[in-house]
Design a protein that fits this description.
single chain, alpha/beta, Rossmann fold, two-stranded antiparallel ribbon, 8 helices, about 20% strand
Length: about 260
């Protein structure tokens, strides 16, 4: 069994454990990291800030139990596809959101179940944080094909330059010291490497934001009673890549510093 399939199996086991221990709603909030409504509002707000079209196609990779889809359900013309490797999460998201035109798909490969050139936004929130670099790169390659010209790939990531991310790494180090084994996969990315990835793939970098700053602008549309309008930190950093228009050049990655 590959490492990836082992990761999927362990995640499914974790979800099964939570469902046995807690009521379903609580269990499947914990399964995606907790703060179900808050994070869903933040993700909705970020999509709005970066061009969410009310009648476009959004692909939500790693949709989990539907926290973003729940916030997007009020757009009557929006087309939405959510993917996740865990069937129990997909089943709950489908039932909770209860929109027949929203698609929820179990997907355990680096594949986007959409036609090439059809998507307006492809989101990967807290996805690349748990994948090998090769897997994340393959997903971005698939996103480039799925997006229409001018469409955007939006993803969150962990980076060492953000102090609030350090405890995650330190916990992984402590686990390795105490057990001699690799624990839960938490992957850090460097923004210079992401710029190189973008140039190699054929994306232009539209934004790269530090996660400990107030990068989430919750407006009147994305606000809820529990999360009022205002600016909030996401915790993870954010990268927005845009597929160039037909006559638009791909911007090169930063030059390598000279020794």
């Amino acid at each position: 069994m590959s490492r990836k399939l082992q990761s999927v199996a362990s995640y499914e086991q974790w979800v099964d454990y939570l469902l046995a221990k807690f009521p379903e709603e609580q269990a499947l909030s914990i399964a995606v990291g907790g703060n179900y409504e808050d994070i869903g509002v933040y993700e909705h707000a970020l999509l709005r800030s970066h061009g969410l079209p009310p009648d476009g196609l959004v692909v939500d990779v790693g949709c989990g139990s539907g926290r973003l889809a729940w916030q997007l359900r009020g757009y009557p013309g929006l087309r939405y596809i959510g993917t996740d490797p865990v069937p129990a999460l997909i089943d709950y998201a489908r039932r909770k959101v209860d929109r027949a035109d929203f698609r929820f798909v179990v997907e355990q490969q680096n594949h986007l179940p959409v036609e090439d050139g059809s998507a307006d936004l492809v989101a990967f929130f807290s996805v690349f944080t748990h994948l090998l670099h090769e897997e994340s790169y393959a997903y971005l390659d698939a996103a480039l094909r799925a997006l229409r010209p001018g469409g955007k790939a939006i993803f969150s990531f962990l980076e060492f330059a953000v102090p609030v991310n350090w405890p995650i790494f330190q916990n992984c180090v402590q686990w390795a010291r105490s057990t001699g084994q690799a624990g839960h996969l938490n992957v850090f990315l460097h923004r210079d490497d992401l710029r190189i990835w973008a140039a190699q793939l054929g994306f232009n970098v539209e934004a790269m934001l530090y996660g400990d700053g107030p990068i989430v602008e919750v407006d009147a549309v994305s606000a809820t009673a529990a999360v009022p309008a205002g600016r909030y930190p996401l915790g993870q950093s954010l990268c927005v890549l845009r597929k160039p228009l037909a006559d638009e050049p791909v911007q090169p990655a930063p030059a390598r510093p000279q020794n």
